[in-house]
Specification:
about 25% helix, 22 strands, five-stranded mixed β-sheet, about 400 residues
């Protein structure tokens, strides 16, 4: 292994056997208090992070003929996140050989490898936003503490290979010694993905009907309607107000994740993607979201301020359209990472977000190859908020 300074490699599988009794005691079922009942809530993404979780890319079906290119994109992502050493990266790898491979790529890309913790936990894919740990936080006296909610990832109710990914929150809880809450409704596992929800950290959550209320396509929670889903999210994420938009862009493999559509940039302001070309297939569904947002109210009863974010020109690969969207940005401690697509609207999107995020730089990450996997920066990342214990 290259001599690149301290970069711990933690074996999640070894920890599983060594701490089995402790992990069992930490698991909380629906019969015991939920996170909301214990004072936990999901913080906003722009709040201070302890770390960002990523999964090293290894599945060639996600990026056909592009896997090596994607590894270099990861190098740039990690380099931007750990800049200034104010945020660590916790990187899931399949084994120690893959950790050594990742270390070489990251080092050559100029990333601070000493700020990367390599966690051995085999995964099916690398979409950590959806399969990774979802953190909630509460204040205890003058201190904050965090816990993890397990939302039982099932590959967007579309693919059969999800079993390794589903165990990521359990490994995270053992590694970090955090309490793990298993989300349930009426005694059954409750399924959502991190990319399907957007919160302002003050009690408001946005999502889409296409993703979680469609009764036939990619049904995560059969038999549950709007009220049941809202009730589960209230219990596990500590939210009190909901905004349901309509649908996502064409080509979205997740069937309507909110993180390609509408994002909070502060507690009262959202950016919402808009397609100006009336002949584009995205024009009508995205226009409906602009109608729906007028009815959304924040936790204090006020309307959010809505700022338009453009869409890039259509991107295609092998005859199908890709879900390219500037809304799939990631807010790290040291910057806002925005996907760019070699498009004239790259400049518009970066300028819009630069005006909204005055406390950290807004930087573009080339994502024409990345979006071949049907997702970009936000889909790959999962923030771990700062919290004392």
């Amino acid at each position: 292994m290259d001599n690149l300074g301290p970069s711990p490699i933690v074996d999640g599988q070894d920890m599983a056997s060594g701490r089995k009794a402790k992990a069992t005691a930490m698991v909380t079922a629906e019969a015991t208090p939920t996170p909301a009942e214990l004072g936990y809530a999901m913080p906003a993404e722009w709040e201070q992070h302890e770390a960002t979780w990523l999964g090293w890319p290894h599945n060639p079906t996600d990026w056909p003929d592009k896997l090596d290119t994607i590894r270099w994109v990861y190098g740039e992502i990690v380099r931007k996140i750990v800049r200034g050493e104010r945020e660590r990266v916790r990187l899931l790898v399949n084994n120690r050989a893959e950790a050594a491979l990742a270390r070489r790529y990251l080092s050559r890309a100029g990333a601070e490898v000493g700020e990367v913790e390599f966690i051995v936990h085999p995964t099916n894919r690398g979409w950590t936003r959806d399969s990774g740990p979802v953190f909630v936080r509460r204040r205890v006296g003058r201190q904050c503490e965090t816990a993890i909610v397990h939302f039982h990832f099932n590959a967007w109710a579309k693919y059969r290979d999800w079993q390794k990914d589903r165990r990521v929150p359990e490994t995270a809880a053992r590694l970090l010694r955090k309490e793990l809450f298993r989300a349930e409704h009426a005694g059954r596992p409750f399924v959502i993905e991190g990319g399907g929800i957007e919160v302002n950290g003050c009690g408001t959550l946005l999502t889409t009907e296409e993703c979680y209320l469609d009764p036939k396509v990619q049904v995560r929670n059969p038999g549950l309607g709007r009220r049941e889903i809202e009730r589960a999210l209230e219990r596990y994420l500590g939210v009190t107000r909901f905004g349901w938009l309509a649908a996502g862009p064409v080509g979205d493999d997740t069937h309507g994740h909110i993180d390609d559509i509408c994002r909070f940039v502060d507690r009262r302001t959202v950016v919402l993607v808009r397609e100006r070309n009336r002949r584009d297939a995205n024009y009508r569904p995205l226009a409906e979201n602009w109608e729906r947002i007028q009815d959304v109210r924040l936790e204090d009863g006020c309307r959010p301020e809505v700022v338009p974010l453009p869409m890039p020109a259509p991107l295609h690969f092998d005859g199908y359209r890709l879900p390219a969207s500037y809304a799939n940005f990631y807010i790290a401690n040291e910057g806002v990472l925005v996907p760019t697509f070699n498009d004239p609207n790259d400049r518009v999107a970066l300028g819009t977000l630069g005006e909204l995020f005055r406390d950290r730089p807004v930087v573009g990450i080339h994502a024409v190859d990345l979006v071949l996997g049907f997702g970009t920066l936000h889909c790959l990342t999962q923030q771990q908020p700062a919290g004392g214990s």
